[in-house]
Every structure is written in structure tokens, then in C-alpha cells.
Design a protein that fits this description.
Elements: E1 3-7, E2 10-12, E3 18-25, E4 34-39, E5 45-51, E6 60-61, E7 69-74, E8 79-84, E9 93-98, E10 110-114
Parallel strand pairs: 2-10
Antiparallel strand pairs: 1-3, 3-8, 4-5, 4-9, 5-6, 7-8, 9-10
Length: 115
């Protein structure tokens, strides 16, 4: 079965950086598009970024994080990372990696608090 395990969250000051990581198993990772989504308290899931299986064309970012966040993957290690920089208080949320843009199949999440 699909298993996604996120890590790397924490408390950071505005302007700071974090690197989130997601370890994937239970499916053919190397041919799967992968996404990161987030959910702030009391809000719906927000798509952040999607990366193609080859890390090539098709990789996309939400306007809210473009230029600040970078998605990457290592198909040999079955991991997908999200580097967060220039963090803002509004980036505070639970962050999830997912096999879809809606976050329907996701891990347990990792909390990012910018304060």
C-alpha cells in the first residue's frame, strides 16, 4: 500500500528556511508525479507544487510560493523534498506530500510554524 512519511518541519522565524522531506513506498515512485500540499488551521488544502517523474518540464508551483519554494526528488532514494525559503507567517501550516494535487493520498504531515 502507498506510504508517505514527511519530516523536517519545525518552528522558524520569518525570512528563515526549512527543508522538508518525504519518503515514499508502496508504489512505482519513479513514474509518479508527486506533489506537496498544505493545510493551515481552519482552511482547505492548498496545492503548493508538483514535480514530474523526471524532474523536468511540468514541474509547477503555486503563485503563493513561486520563487521561494523549490521541489526536488531522488528517484533512487524514493524521496521528494521541498525547500522553503523566505518564509512568511502565512506559510504556517501542516505540510503533506501527496501522489495527487488535491492531497487525497498523503502522509501524516509535518508542521511548519513561522513566528
Amino acid at each position: 500500500h502507498v506510504q508517505l512519511v514527511e519530516s523536517g518541519g519545525g518552528l522558524v522565524q520569518p525570512g528563515g528556511s526549512l527543508r522538508l522531506s518525504c519518503a515514499a513506498s508502496g508504489f512505482t515512485f519513479g513514474i509518479s508525479w508527486m506533489s506537496w500540499v498544505r493545510q493551515a488551521p481552519g482552511k482547505d488544502f492548498e496545492w503548493i507544487s508538483t514535480i514530474s517523474p523526471t524532474s523536468g518540464p511540468g514541474t509547477r508551483y503555486a503563485d503563493s510560493v513561486k520563487g521561494r519554494f523549490t521541489i526536488s526528488r531522488d528517484n533512487a532514494k524514493h524521496t521528494v523534498d521541498l525547500h522553503l525559503s523566505s518564509l512568511k507567517t502565512e506559510d504556517t501550516a501542516m505540510y503533506y506530500c501527496s501522489t495527487d494535487r488535491s492531497g487525497n493520498v498523503r502522509g501524516q504531515g509535518t508542521q511548519v510554524t513561522v513566528s
